[in-house]
Backbone:
């Protein structure tokens, strides 16, 4: 379905990303740009590994706060900034699992595992970004259904529409997403 | 109609996807290829972020970023400032201005910083000799800064490896230094000379001669290196390893074990030491009665290092605190009489700004000094933190002995409490504990679970068992980066003994002693602590079922840990002594949050105003505000 190879299209973006990183290193308030371009990736990665929504939010917040704090120490080595963020995320997840003193822990996350995650993560991040660009009524239904995990009935009540109409919006929303996904993957 | 049916079918698939929590992309019976594809998409959408989360986090980060642009944030500066190494010798001299002039003539030293005090004395100066910084100041006997003539010598040489020892010594002698050991080839493979400058400081210069020695002498030796004389070299090596995370490079011992010469590294620097040798004029600080050379250490985390050093046996001369010149630092004396300033650089301050702040600081200080002994009470007694665990047991004296023997506790106070029992205060590492009970006291004991960080878990565990504690679990490496063990003492307190791997054995944010609660409904406890004592949730690790496996909340400057009760870890209601700015106000707030009153606020004869409450989980909280300085035993 998706072409093989590095899922993060590195070379094309490298120069631009490097500028963003250096700008943020000089002025931390510029970190917002790095956040905007990487939020979905980090979130998708954590959601994929952690499943629990509150914990995903917690960890995502942790990753970006740590990244912001450690940014002065970040050295540009030609690896995408997202890889650095995901490595932080992977370590935080591992930490968190280990720190549940009494739970059985997972094996530590190696670089290769992080690399392999990229493709999955990139696909999801892209999907999340596409949701933002759906027509507003479809987007609302998709958000309520998948992000807030509401039932069709709840959504129908909340939006004052029939369940059938909500189901149709969901259908069209998903169809739309699929079409846009195919489009952007050539 | 067909459309409607499709959307219905799809929704059933979506329901199926959402109902399977563990399978990210379940294989679905392909009702229809297109529908299956959409259902696959639905599976991937399961992790879709909530709408407001991205915005909320963005606002959060913006706030942090603005904070980070303020110069006080540690993230902006290197903990070891530009131009410095871990170790910097700090010389006290009778005439700093004259000394700087001499060091320029003798060693080519250039001045990089000079801070004169209002009375004309040099409060602090820095010079550069080759690649080395050296700090110096005039005498400030009131602050422990004394020069070699006042001490009667120096237990610390400043040693340099140089390319040409003869040239260095010639130049220094020409400038007025006195020769202690004339330059000559030594049988240990170096050409060496030793001088005393007109201010009484001693300087050693070496050039390696033999190939093997030249290889040992790496670049880090070619800078100003303190060479310490200590009464007991072997003990000192052990101490510096434990207290300052030093590593031993080499030692040369006499047949009778006296250390003739040893080399250690601390951080990126070297220190050398030898046992006392009065026949060569090498006297220890103890026999001299002081030292005119302080060793300044820049480290990543001054608080952790200081607490490690104190646990190992160092004495605090000046507690660690933020200094106006951009360092967070404290002053320690080791058991051998050498004095260390430990610092972490927290803010880049220009020399001009430093001078400006110094003026402000002096103006601010002056009246306070004149006030003399009737100083206003501090919000927390010296050495205490916001939270102090109060262990009440039947056999308080026995517990005290146990803590001393097993964990190196130091008894600070022992008196009789108002209920006729013993009241004692001890220090373990950087933490204080209160202990009560025994004697005529007939209350209900409140043993406590404590998370104790020590330099060596195995040793502490062994000592605890020898002193009658029972094992909860043996020492083992935990995959969260600690070695830990558990014991229960005879009074029923649980001690989770731990040593963090790495340079500092106490994790950041925690102290030597931390209370660990095992409540039923940890989330409710956290809620209560937030409402009653403005606790901050630092960390929460919960399962998908919401059960909290491990959480940390901060109250004031202290952290309380907890994990939901399970198995052998059952609730142990705990007594806390909390220092607050206004005991009455916090007492009222605790009651509003659902605590019940045990005693109303009252001035106590021991210098605190305090009240006590019981929380819904049976923990007892004293809220206290000092009303006068604690009586000095």
Residues:
């Amino acid at each position: 379905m998706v072409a093989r190879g590095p899922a993060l299209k590195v070379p094309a973006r490298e120069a631009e990303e490097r500028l963003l990183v250096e700008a943020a290193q000089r002025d931390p308030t510029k970190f917002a740009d790095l956040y905007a371009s990487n939020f979905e990736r980090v979130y998708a990665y954590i959601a994929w590994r952690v499943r629990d929504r509150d914990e995903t939010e917690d960890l995502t917040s942790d990753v970006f706060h740590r990244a912001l704090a450690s940014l002065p120490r970040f050295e540009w080595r030609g690896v995408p900034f997202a890889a650095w963020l995901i490595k932080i995320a992977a370590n935080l997840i591992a930490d968190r699992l280990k720190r549940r003193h009494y739970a059985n822990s997972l094996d530590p996350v190696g670089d290769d595992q992080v690399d392999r995650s990229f493709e999955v993560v990139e696909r999801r991040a892209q999907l999340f970004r596409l949701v933002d660009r759906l027509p507003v009524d479809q987007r609302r239904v998709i958000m309520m259904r998948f992000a807030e995990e509401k039932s069709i009935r709840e959504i129908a009540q909340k939006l004052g529409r029939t369940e059938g109409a909500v189901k149709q919006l969901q259908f069209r929303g998903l169809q739309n997403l699929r079409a846009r996904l195919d489009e952007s993957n050539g | 109609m067909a459309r409607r049916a499709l959307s219905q079918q799809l929704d059933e698939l979506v329901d199926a996807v959402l109902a399977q929590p563990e399978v990210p992309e379940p294989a679905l019976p392909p009702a229809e290829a297109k529908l299956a594809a959409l259902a696959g998409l639905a599976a991937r959408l399961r992790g879709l972020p909530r709408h407001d989360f991205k915005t909320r986090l963005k606002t959060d980060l913006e706030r942090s970023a603005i904070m980070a642009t303020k110069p006080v944030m540690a993230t902006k500066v290197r903990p070891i400032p530009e131009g410095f190494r871990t170790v910097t010798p700090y010389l006290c001299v009778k005439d700093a201005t004259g000394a700087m002039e001499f060091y320029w003539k003798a060693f080519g030293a250039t001045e990089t910083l000079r801070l004169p005090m209002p009375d004309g004395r040099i409060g602090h100066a820095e010079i550069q000799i080759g690649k080395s910084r050296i700090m110096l100041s005039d005498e400030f006997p009131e602050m422990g800064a004394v020069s070699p003539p006042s001490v009667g010598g120096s237990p610390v040489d400043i040693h340099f490896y140089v390319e040409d020892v003869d040239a260095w010594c010639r130049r220094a002698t020409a400038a007025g230094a006195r020769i202690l050991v004339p330059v000559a080839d030594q049988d240990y493979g170096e050409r060496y000379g030793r001088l005393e400058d007109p201010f009484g400081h001693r300087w050693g210069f070496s050039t390696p001669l033999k190939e093997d020695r030249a290889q040992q002498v790496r670049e880090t030796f070619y800078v100003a290196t303190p060479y310490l004389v200590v009464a007991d070299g072997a003990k000192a090596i052990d101490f510096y390893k434990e207290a300052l995370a030093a590593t031993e490079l080499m030692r040369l011992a006499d047949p009778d074990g006296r250390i003739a010469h040893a080399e250690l590294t601390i951080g990126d620097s070297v220190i050398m030491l030898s046992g006392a040798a009065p026949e060569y004029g090498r006297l220890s600080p103890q026999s001299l009665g002081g030292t005119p050379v302080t060793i300044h250490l820049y480290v990543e985390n001054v608080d952790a290092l200081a607490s490690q050093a104190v646990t190992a046996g160092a004495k605090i001369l000046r507690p660690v605190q933020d200094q106006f010149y951009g360092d967070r630092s404290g002053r320690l004396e080791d058991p051998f009489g050498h004095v260390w300033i430990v610092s972490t650089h927290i803010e880049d301050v220009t020399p001009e700004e430093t001078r400006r702040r110094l003026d402000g600081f002096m103006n601010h200080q002056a009246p306070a000094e004149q006030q003399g002994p009737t100083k206003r009470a501090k919000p927390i007694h010296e050495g205490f933190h916001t939270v102090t665990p109060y262990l009440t047991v039947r056999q308080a004296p026995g517990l005290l002995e146990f803590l001393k023997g097993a964990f190196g506790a130091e008894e600070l106070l022992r008196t009789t409490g108002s209920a006729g029992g013993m009241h004692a205060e001890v220090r373990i590492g950087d933490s204080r504990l209160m202990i009560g009970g025994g004697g005529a006291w007939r209350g209900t004991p409140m043993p406590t679970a404590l998370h104790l960080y020590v330099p060596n878990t195995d040793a502490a565990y062994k000592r605890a068992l020898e002193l009658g504690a029972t094992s909860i679990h043996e020492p083992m490496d935990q995959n969260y980066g600690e070695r830990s063990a558990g014991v229960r003492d005879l009074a029923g307190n649980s001690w989770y003994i731990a040593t963090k791997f790495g340079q500092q054995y106490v994790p950041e944010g925690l102290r030597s002693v931390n209370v660990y609660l095992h409540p039923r409904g940890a989330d409710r406890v956290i809620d209560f602590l937030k409402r009653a004592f403005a606790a901050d949730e630092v960390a929460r690790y919960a399962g998908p079922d919401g059960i909290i496996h491990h959480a940390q909340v901060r109250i004031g400057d202290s952290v309380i840990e907890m994990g939901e009760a399970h198995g052998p870890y059952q609730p142990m209601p705990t007594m806390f002594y909390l220092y607050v700015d206004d005991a009455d106000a916090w007492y009222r707030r605790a009651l509003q949050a659902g605590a019940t009153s045990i005693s109303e606020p009252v001035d106590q004869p021991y210098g605190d105003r305090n009240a006590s409450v019981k929380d819904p989980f049976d923990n007892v909280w004293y809220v206290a505000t000092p009303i006068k300085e604690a009586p000095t035993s």
Observations:
- The two ends of chain B are 90 Å apart (CA to CA).
